[in-house]
Fold this sequence. Notes:
Helix content is 33%, strand content 22%. It has helices at 9-27, 38-53, 90-106, 159-162, 216-248; strands at residues 29-33, 58-59, 78-82, 115-118, 121-126, 133-136, 145-152, 166-168, 177-179, 185-190, 197-199, 206-215. The strands form 2 sheets. Strands 1, 2, 3, 4, 5, 7, 10 and 12 form an 8-stranded antiparallel sheet that branches. A 4-stranded antiparallel sheet has the order 6-11-8-9, with no helix packed on it. Helix 2 (38-53) crosses helix 3 (90-106). The chain is globular, with a radius of gyration of 21 Å.
Amino acid sequence: MPLTEQVTDAHLERLALERVVPELLSHGFCYVDGLLGEAAGDAVLNQVQQLHRDGALHDGRLAGSVLGVQLRRGRGDKVAWVSGAERGCEAIGFLLTLIDKMISVCASRLGGKEIRARSKAMVACYPGNGAGYVKHVDNPNGDGRFLTCTYYLNKNWDAKEHGGVLRIFPEGKAYVTDVHPLFDRLLVFWSDRRNPHEVQPSFSTRYAITVWYFDSEERAAARRRFKDLQGNQLGLMMRRRLHRWRGRGASHPPSLRPASSMDDPLAMRSRD
């Protein structure tokens, strides 16, 4: 499905320099309305709704989940991870390209961080049954996520009736900020402990697409830590199995299956 690009590079650069960078540095978050326009926004919404109808969305897990523990309580959305290159996700890919361009302009102006990669896109749906997401931090443990970018897809949304507000609790501030999940709105905020946030209960179907941009240095350190942790876990597992093997008097030592990339909570979100 071809899309005519209605957002110019010059417009994206202006948004980055005049809105996103200044507001991130002063407030820690920024939202932009009317990012794609009606036609392109509708195309993205249609593809997200089709993913939902096709059963491609599954239970999300809590931020900060640890190895081997799939935490669900406190989070009520259904999610799918897409690159935007899949068949039927062309409009989503178009959206991601525009966000990439805008963040590339921001990257060198946000405290000297090197941003060279991002996650896949998390397509999320709160089904309208009062589901929400408890107060949390996207990156509480230094996993490399630096910026959170969420694009909303909800037409005629009335927060008084439908709920679903994203409430940000800026670190060290005496106030909170409520962001309504309005159609064609892009929200950008720091992913770390500066921005605890929650999704309040939603009473109508609520769609959003989120990507995370990585601080390259922190991301590399997180991967090294994870690799070391895998090695420590593998060594502990071997010692335990050898102990049981010796206790049973078995003639052959046990074999071990190396941990797969699916055991890495970072791997599922990485495209780099």
